[in-house]
């Protein structure tokens, strides 16, 4: 073959080839990572075979040509033949049984036959729905496990009239256990490295499992033959069908093979589709709402019928888009019939295995654009879907060997999604869950849990009646539910109250906890405290609801998005009549355009929908430092007085220190409790990046908790531990010996671990914020507890006129206790004052192409003289990270950043400009590391420029050597601004100056479609914005002679946010 281009290959090892490249647990991760690095085609040499991976639409389109390529079962599929021989899934196309079964079964999977299976599908979907209904709203549902039960039970019932009854037994049916083990072992067998005797036990079990599978299926078959039935299932079709081509019937053995095949091919795939669909719906409230609206409009509250199945186009869009992003079979394999060239230049040899890497090919920007990574069901509605180029969407495989069960899976999944959205509102059990994959024959989400609240206030039995179509009871439901909830007193003897919060980093959650722990003193009992999304479509009537929420870039916090989307969509002005509410909003003035946007919106929309505002909205600005005081002042002066007036409750606030209600006893046994939304990571390296005497900046490398994945540009949330010296100060002040244990008992609500004995230093260290500024109410409690009159007087002033002194100096309760020694504060009262420990976020400064399971962070250590004048102020998380060394463990989780803050999908054609200062370099190190891996793999990338600001060369120019090497490789061009040595950066002091100094290059890249990224402090963000606007203004003037005024320039800039540029700035 002349004029050919060799297919790129990673450097391999002699004998072993590329085995070492593969992630053993999740090989797909390696295949996709290599496609990111090498581009649309690469080859791996694995023991006994070479595989060419293709991942662009143009190549997949070629490989789908059945004249040139065909399916031959290899690897795990080949092993599965031990159990099901030449059943449809595992047969070679030339095997006669494949042809006979294919022709006999095609009509059985046709639209009319599948319609006929609707009632049985409905029955199993109802079983699933009722199981979740009975769990109740706080039970975490193992999503994938329950969808797998749905798929298996549906398949067994519809294909052969057999019931596994998976929802009624805790033990797995022996057939299913055998099938699971058989599939796992079939996946393991191709990778065996030891002599066969070594696997004797595994083999014995393997053949026994096969025996169980075949015996059970054969029994069903023989039973049916003995007692013929009129059932229109797949078994009947196989028994009665005649192959139109050969006139032959399927043999008993082939029927058994295929009965098992349907279960194998259809259970994980359908379960994967449903699990991924719900994962995406929970992450995309807008899509969730549209899907639920479609169900409500098309089906309403009545029973679901087969006629509805074709009238749910949006749900169809959701399923197609889910299968695009996460095809449960993420790659399919074919072999080349002859030596051939792909794209006219890449040589592929006869019989060589070619993988169609759908997980990557379905993201091809040439077909799906630069937002291909995003979940957008709209692009998969019928019209655009039908216009997709041929072979651009292949989750069901190709040509003759495409999935025969597609219509079956489609109807089953459509029905399940519709029934579940009609019946429940869902929230993610862990709102910060980031997708982890489990790979067996297929892929599915790992560890994904959600919670389900029945809609319309129904009880499980009312729901059961509705699903069964018993209208009369369903009709009386809404009035029942309202009456049910109007109880005059809660379980604790007070009036019930619901508290809901929207919170990403814990501020609003701790306010919600605070109001919950105060409620009993004002005559209320908390009937529910939970995230806002649990009240999506479901606000209780007849009891007050307190809502505390923040905003993020003008959007709701992650756990409030579904709720906000719902209240925004309510049109009926009476929909929420009977709901009593009040809102407290948290915000930061730096986000001037969207300051407090979400709390204000919720407050207004609830009123517009007919709800009654019982107390005026309260607002606080965390940028001003005394948010806790603002919240407590609102509680004391607005919330509780209004509630008292409205509900006639009485309060008991006589003794503040006692009222906080924590009882503490000191004992010895130990135990520990961990937060749920973070998991254990391991530090492997830590080093200082700055010169002696400079403010310290550090680099830390961490192994992610298993299963967590990330993209360059994402964040890492870190749950820190207070600095040792701060903990020791607290222990000293309360005269606690170093080994003291404490047990906390509480009558009210608290976020501290209760009724369990824990070391005092771990409570102080891990559970509470010790350095938050004291609130006015906190100081009020100190006044009560002060023994010395003059200290009492000083503290009284601090709690009133001189409070500013506290907030500007950020004086903590601990600072005050140390200063005012006569204050005899009970330990329980102190603990009750402290907010729970919050996570801090850090930009990840590495790329998964460097290491998919490790991340690095680049951070500034906050350690400076305290504004309170008492010692040093040591930042909690930054000092905690700085204290860690190789081998230490910590609690972390990956949090995705804004969709726009990632490298462009089309790296070959879209230039990149990154601008940052100080640790603002963090995400860009990840970006450039990623590009450098691509360049090293031989890819040609569009240009990238990095503008970076620091003080001086050799002092704090982070990663200078690395950046130099990456610059030499062509991955980036670096321009610096040295603020304390501008002479060494061509006169540029700050990055914005450097940007302007390179104005021509920047303008050219911008015009070539560059994406711009900004990271650092807010001031840097503003400086860069001004510089870019100036460049634009002077370009227009130069070309067109026109002046663009400041206002228009600002509008132009705002209009391009998150399309042409993305910022990641926070002070
Ligand atoms: C999305 C995002 C990404 C981020 N990425 C990074 C990153 O990559 N690298 C990085 O270094 N940081 C990053 N940050 C900032 C980081 O999250 C932390 O805020 C920072 O490390 C400080 O946390 P800390 O726990 O050490 O300080 P804290 O204990 O939380 O203290 C901070 C508070 O103390 C106040 N304070 C400061 N100095 C004093 C003083 N002298 N006396 C009294 N009070 C004082 C501050 O005003 C602030 O309110 C990021 C932030 C966000 C939101
Ligand atoms: N994803 C994110 O949101 C993210 C990620 C990482 C870091 N950060 C934030 O970024 C900030 C960087 O902190 P750091 O300690 O690393 O920085 P730093 O070392 O204090 O400052 C870095 C450089 O920026 C310069 N600078 C100061 N004011 C500037 C301005 N108005 N315009 C342009 N440059 C300016 C400094 O100059 P002089 O000191 O000489 O004036 C210095 O040369 C922090 O607020 C951190 O929280 C955010
Ligand atoms: C969303 C759900 C499903 C997906 C994504 C899916 C996907 C696929 C894919 C990609 C193939 C081709 C595999 C290859 O080329 O090696 C395939 C084949 C097959 N599927 Fe499905 N499938 C699903 C559901 C089902 C169901 C429910 C059944 C059975 C009722 C089923 C039965 C089969 C069979 C028998 C084959 C082999 C067809 C042949 O080669 O003749 N599938 N499926
Ligand atoms: C990335 C980011 C974006 C923000 N956007 C806004 C905003 O648009 N409007 C606003 O009022 N506050 C905004 N804030 C401030 C938050 O609302 C504030 O930090 C609040 O305390 C967060 O509450 P939580 O800790 O309960 O999540 C933003 C904060 C961050 C980190």
Q: What can you tell me about this protein's structure?
A:
The chain has about 1050 residues and is of the alpha/beta class. The strands form nine sheets. Strands 13, 14, 15, 16, 17 and 18 form a six-stranded parallel sheet that branches. The chain has a six-stranded antiparallel sheet with strand order 25-22-29-20-21-26, with helices on one face. Helix 12 (about 285-300) runs antiparallel to helix 13 (about 315-325). The longest helix has about 30 residues, at about 250-285. It is globular. Flavin-adenine dinucleotide (FAD) binds near residues 810, 840, 875 and 878.
Question: What is the fold's blueprint, element by element?
Answer:
Elements: H1 27-38, E1 41-46, E2 49-54, H2 57-63, E3 69-70, H3 75-84, H4 96-105, H5 111-116, H6 118-135, E4 141-142, H7 143-160, H8 174-188, H9 200-226, H10 234-240, H11 252-283, H12 285-298, H13 313-325, E5 331-336, E6 340-342, E7 346-348, E8 353-357, H14 358-361, H15 365-368, H16 382-386, H17 406-423, E9 424-428, E10 437-439, E11 443-445, E12 449-454, H18 460-467, H19 471-475, H20 477-485, E13 495-502, H21 507-519, E14 524-531, E15 544-549, H22 561-569, E16 580-587, H23 597-608, E17 612-613, E18 618-621, H24 627-647, H25 656-659, E19 662-667, E20 679-688, E21 697-703, E22 715-719, H26 724-733, E23 741-746, E24 757-759, H27 760-767, H28 776-785, H29 789-798, H30 803-809, H31 813-819, H32 827-833, E25 840-843, E26 854-860, E27 863-865, E28 872-874, H33 876-883, E29 889-895, E30 912-917, H34 922-936, E31 944-950, H35 960-968, E32 973-978, H36 991-997, H37 999-1007, E33 1011-1016, H38 1018-1040, H39 1046-1055, E34 1061-1065
Parallel strand pairs: 2-8, 13-14, 13-15, 15-16, 16-17, 16-18, 30-31, 30-33, 31-32, 33-34
Antiparallel strand pairs: 1-2, 3-5, 4-12, 5-8, 6-7, 9-12, 10-11, 19-23, 20-21, 20-29, 21-26, 22-25, 22-29, 23-24, 27-28
Bound molecules: flavin-adenine dinucleotide, NADP nicotinamide-adenine-dinucleotide phosphate, protoporphyrin IX containing FE and flavin mononucleotide.
The site of NADP nicotinamide-adenine-dinucleotide phosphate (NAP) has 25 residues, from strand 31, helix 36, strand 33, helix 38 and strand 34.
């Amino acid at each position: 073959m002349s004029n050919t281009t060799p297919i790129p290959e990673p450097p391999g090892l002699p004998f072993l080839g590329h085995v070492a490249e593969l992630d053993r647990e999740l090989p797909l991760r390696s295949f996709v990572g290599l496609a990111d690095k090498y581009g649309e085609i690469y080859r791996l040499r694995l023991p006994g075979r070479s595989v060419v991976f293709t991942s662009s639409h143009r190549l997949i389109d070629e490989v789908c040509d059945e004249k040139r390529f065909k399916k031959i079962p290899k690897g795990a599929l080949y092993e599965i033949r031990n159990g099901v021989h030449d059943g449809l899934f595992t047969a070679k196309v030339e095997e006669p049984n494949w042809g006979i079964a294919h022709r006999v079964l095609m009509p059985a999977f046709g639209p009319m036959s599948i319609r006929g299976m609707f009632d049985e599908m409905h029955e199993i979907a109802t079983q699933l729905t009722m199981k979740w209904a009975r769990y109740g709203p706080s039970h975490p549902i193992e999503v994938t496990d329950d969808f797998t039960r749905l798929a298996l039970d549906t398949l067994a019932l519809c294909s052969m009239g057999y019931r596994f009854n998976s929802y009624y037994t805790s033990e797995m049916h022996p057939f299913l256990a055998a099938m699971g083990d058989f599939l796992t072992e079939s996946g393991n067998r191709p990778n065996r490295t030891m002599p066969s005797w070594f696997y004797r036990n595994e083999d014995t079990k393997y053949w026994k499992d096969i025996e169980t599978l075949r015996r059970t299926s054969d029994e069903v078959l023989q039973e049916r033959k003995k007692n013929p039935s009129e059932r229109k299932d797949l078994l009947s079709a196989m028994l009665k069908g005649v192959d139109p081509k050969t006139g032959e019937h399927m043999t008993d053995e082939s029927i058994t093979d295929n009965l098992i095949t349907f279960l194998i091919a259809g259970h994980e795939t359908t379960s994967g589709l449903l699990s991924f669909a719900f994962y995406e719906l929970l992450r995309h409230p807008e899509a969730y709402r549209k899907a639920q609206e479609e169900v409500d409009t098309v089906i309403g509250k009545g029973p679901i019928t087969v006629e509805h199945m074709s009238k749910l186009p949006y749900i169809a869009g959701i399923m197609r888009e889910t299968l695009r992003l996460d095809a449960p079979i993420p790659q399919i394999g074919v072999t080349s019939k002859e030596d051939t060239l792909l794209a006219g230049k890449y040589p592929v040899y006869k019989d060589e295995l070619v993988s169609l890497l759908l997980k990557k090919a379905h993201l091809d920007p040439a077909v799906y654009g630069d937002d291909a990574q995003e979940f957008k069901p709209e692009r998969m509605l019928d019209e655009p879907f039908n216009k997709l180029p041929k072979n651009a969407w292949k989750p069901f495989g190709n040509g003759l060997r495409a999935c025969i069960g597609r219509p079956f899976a489609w109807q089953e999944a459509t029905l399940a999604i519709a029934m579940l959205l009609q019946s429940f509102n869902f929230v993610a059990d862990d709102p910060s869950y980031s997708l982890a994959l489990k790979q067996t024959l297929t892929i599915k989400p790992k560890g994904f849990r959600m919670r389900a609240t029945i809609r319309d206030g129904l009880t499980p039995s009312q729901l059961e009646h509705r699903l069964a179509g018993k209208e009369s009871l369903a009709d009386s439901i809404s009035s029942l539910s309202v009456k049910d909830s109007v109880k005059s007193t809660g379980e604790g003897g007070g009036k019930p109250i619901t508290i809901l919060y929207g919170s990403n980093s814990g501020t609003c959650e701790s306010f919600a906890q605070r109001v919950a722990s105060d409620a009993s003193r004002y005559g209320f009992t908390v009937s529910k405290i939970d995230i806002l999304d649990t009240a999506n479509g479901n606000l209780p009537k007849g009891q007050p609801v307190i809502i505390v929420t923040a905003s993020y870039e003008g959007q709701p916090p992650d756990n409030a998005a579904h709720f906000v989307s719902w209240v925004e969509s309510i049109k009926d002005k009476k929909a929420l009549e009977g709901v009593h509410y009040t809102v407290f909003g948290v915000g930061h003035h730096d986000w001037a355009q969207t300051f407090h946007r979400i709390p204000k919106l919720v407050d207004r929309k609830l009123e517009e929908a007919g709800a009654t505002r019982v107390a005026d909205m309260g607002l606080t600005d965390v940028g001003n430092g005394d948010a806790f005081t603002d919240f407590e002042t609102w509680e004391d002066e607005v919330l509780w007085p209004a509630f008292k007036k409205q509900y006639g409750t009485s309060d008991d606030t006589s003794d503040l220190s006692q009222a906080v209600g924590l009882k503490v006893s000191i004992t010895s046994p130990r135990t520990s409790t961990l937060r749920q939304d973070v998991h254990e990571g391991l530090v492997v390296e830590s080093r200082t990046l700055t010169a002696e005497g400079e403010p310290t900046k550090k680099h830390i490398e961490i192994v992610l908790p298993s299963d967590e994945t990330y993209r360059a540009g994402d964040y890492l949330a870190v749950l820190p531990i207070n600095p040792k010296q701060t903990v020791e100060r607290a222990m000293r002040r309360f005269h606690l010996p170093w080994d003291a244990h404490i047990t906390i008992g509480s009558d009210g609500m608290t976020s501290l671990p209760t009724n369990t004995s824990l070391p005092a230093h771990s409570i102080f260290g891990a559970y509470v914020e010790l350095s938050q500024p004291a609130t006015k109410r906190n100081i009020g409690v100190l006044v009560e507890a002060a023994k010395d009159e003059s200290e009492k007087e000083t503290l009284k002033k601090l709690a009133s006129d001189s409070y500013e002194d506290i907030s500007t100096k950020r004086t903590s309760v601990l600072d005050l206790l140390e200063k005012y020694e006569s204050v005899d504060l009970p330990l329980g009262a102190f603990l009750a004052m402290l907010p729970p420990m919050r996570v801090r976020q850090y930009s990840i400064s590495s790329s998964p192409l460097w290491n998919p399971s490790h991340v690095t962070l680049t951070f500034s250590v906050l350690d400076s003289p305290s504004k309170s004048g008492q010692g040093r102020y040591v930042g909690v998380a930054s000092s905690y990270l700085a204290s860690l060394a190789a081998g230490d463990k910590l609690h972390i989780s990956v949090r995705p950043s804004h969709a726009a803050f990632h490298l462009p999908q089309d790296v070959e054609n879209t230039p990149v400009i990154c601008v940052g200062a100080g640790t603002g370099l963090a995400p860009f190190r990840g970006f450039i590391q990623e590009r450098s891996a691509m360049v090293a793999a031989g890819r040609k990338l569009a240009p990238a420029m990095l503008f970076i600001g620091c003080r001086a060369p050799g002092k704090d120019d982070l990663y200078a050597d690395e950046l130099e090497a990456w610059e030499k490789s062509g991955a980036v061009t670096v321009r610096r601004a040295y603020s304390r040595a501008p002479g060494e950066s061509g006169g540029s002091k700050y990055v914005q100056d450097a940007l302007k100094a390179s104005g021509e290059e920047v303008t050219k890249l911008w015009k070539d479609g560059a994406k711009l990224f900004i990271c650092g402090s807010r001031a840097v963000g503003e400086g860069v914005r001004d510089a870019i606007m100036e460049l634009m203004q002077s370009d227009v003037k130069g070309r067109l002679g026109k002046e663009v005024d400041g206002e228009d320039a600002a509008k132009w800039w705002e209009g391009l946010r998150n399309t042409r540029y993305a910022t990641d700035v926070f002070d």
